[in-house]
Amino acid sequence: MKTIYYGRISTTEGQTSASQYDDAKKQGINAKHVHIDEGISGYHVAPMDRTEWKRVMDKLSDGGVLYVRWLDRISRRYDELHRVMQLLMSMGVKVVCTLNGMTFDGTATDPMLKATRDAVLAFMAAQGEADYINRREMQRRGIEVAKAAADGRYVGRAKALDPATVKAWRAEHGKSIAATAEHFEVSVATVKRYCAS
Q: What is each CA distance from 44 to 10, 41, 68, 69, 76, in whole angstroms?
């Protein structure tokens, strides 16, 4: 039975997919079956518009096991996540959330098991979207507070790293891009971009 891992990070600025690669390794999943979309919003970009998700769906077309850290890696929109999960269930895919061990079994045939599975799925999909909307609202409020500060200026989020610092450290230590990304706890894509500038 095919075993696939799917991950996603919303931005390559200040986020890294390293923990999801580590999670996949802990599950014993072969690296060639680990698919992570980087710099992709789970709210604004539909799963079927993502390169790595399309590969996941191709591999699972005749069933298998899909590991995700949490269902919000697939989508943060209620209707979309519900639709995708129902499609996976109809394909006979078992979806395992590694964060808490919850399993959604597309091979289930008992009506009560299917009903329970679908009810929990609906709740989790709704919670994912509500969480995203709440965080966006809190961010908006924080910006408003900052703008209303004594000097009236909002300068935005401080830049996490200086490209020159990253390039200098890499050159001084003779490290690979991956090792540099790990050292600074940023994505490989961020290091590549910094080193190309």
A: 10, 5, 19, 19, 9
pLDDT per residue as tens digits for the range 23-39: 999 999 999 999 999 99
Q: Is the pLDDT of residue 2 over 60?
A: yes
pTM for this model (two decimals): 0.66
177-184 vs 188-196: helix axis angle to the nearest 10?
110
Q: What is the crossing angle of helices 78-90 and 111-147, to 10°?
A: 150
How many CA within 13 A on the CB side of residue 108? 18
User: Which residues lie below 8 Å from residue 80, measured CB to CB, with a gap of 6+?
Assistant: 46, 47
Contacts of 195 (CB under 8 A, 6+ apart): 163, 166, 167, 170, 177, 180
> Could you say which DSSP state residue 50 is in?
S
Place of tokens 């940023």: 186
3-state SS, residue 159: coil
pLDDT at 22 > cutoff 80: yes
Q: Provide the residue count of the chain.
A: 197
pLDDT in tens, 88-106: 999 999 999 998 889 999 9
